[in-house]
Amino acid sequence: MPDHLLFSYGTLRLPRVQVARFGRELAGRPDALLGFRLETVAVTDPSVISDSGSAEHPMAVRSDDPHDAIDGTVFTLTEADLAAADAYEDDAYLRVKADLRSGEKAWVYVDAATAEDFRAAGLVAAQEKAIALFAEVEARGLVAPGFGEREVSDRIRDLANDMFGTTKHWHKRIIRSGPNTLRPYRDNPPDRIIGEDDIAFADFGPIFEEYEADFGRTYVFGDDPDKHRLLHDLPRIFDAGRAVFAADPDITGRQLYAEVERLAGEAGWEIGIWHTGHLVGEFPHEVNDGAKAESYITPDNDTPLRRTDRVGKTCHWILELHFVDRARGFGGFYEQLLDLA
């Protein structure tokens, strides 16, 4: 795993805390966190108080004055070190990526309100890059008849690398066409050449600046009116589902699923998978495997979608539409952020 930069302005700079938490003293370099000021927070964890020697710790809070800055130290940590730092910090702190005076970006522990602002902005910015990526995909005609699904996936991956330096994706990259568009996410159908009268979709999860974008679009080739109708219905029903979500502050996963299912049925489509969306940035699809219904927009989720998770972070959602016509043997796909503009 790659190393991580962590900016510390408080007790993690103390040698005794480093030895207690990382098993060694850390080498660091001075830097400053821009646009922040310091406040004080009371901590209650006895082990943290014992290691630091204090029950009051400094807290970085976003400042209204852009000239404000907090001096501190940048450390290079392993993945295990970063997990140990997370365990050390009180629940009042959350970790975000922020700009330093040196021009580098580093993890830093800040107050929860600031962290949520950063997180929401990061998710929106990641989606904006995904939108730009797929606009370029369409402009270059990368998803086109005559190319294999794996080849198209690799071409989009390479374009993402060229445009944004993206090297990571938070789930497998999917290009599917023809009858493969009926297959659910977990299936791995044989590679297929996109045909002249096909329908195809792309399901990508690029990571931009540590924030996950989950984004999907559908492409239709030829003149089949039903395939073009599906291409039109996907964004229309997405917008209708988002409007239903916006209108009900207490809506549950079950309720939103039912509304999407109704809208799809009225248009003549069937939902092709067992859910219509999921939390973004909280888990990889491969690990969760539906074990936690509250993480998905599904008939089994009776919890409100507007809530915080187990560590106090605001839940943000992807609305994921996979509609199919099993009789005619094709489907389509559309997904992006549900609750953030």
From TrEMBL:
Under InterPro entries, the record lists: AIG2-like_dom, Creatinase/aminopeptidase-like, GGCT-like, GGCT-like_sf, Pept_M24, Peptidase_M24B
Q: Any idea where the Gamma-glutamylcyclotransferase AIG2-like domain is? A: 6-111
Q: Which superkingdom? A: Bacteria
The chain's coiled-coil residues are none
Q: Per its UniProt record, what SUPFAM superfamilies does this chain match? A: Creatinase/aminopeptidase (SSF55920), Gamma-glutamyl cyclotransferase-like (SSF110857)
| CDD domains reported for this sequence | APP_MetAP (cd01066), GGCT_like (cd06661)
- Name of the molecule in the record: Gamma-glutamylcyclotransferase
Q: Which organism is it from?
A: Planotetraspora thailandica
Lineage here is: Bacteria, Bacillati, Actinomycetota, Actinomycetes, Streptosporangiales
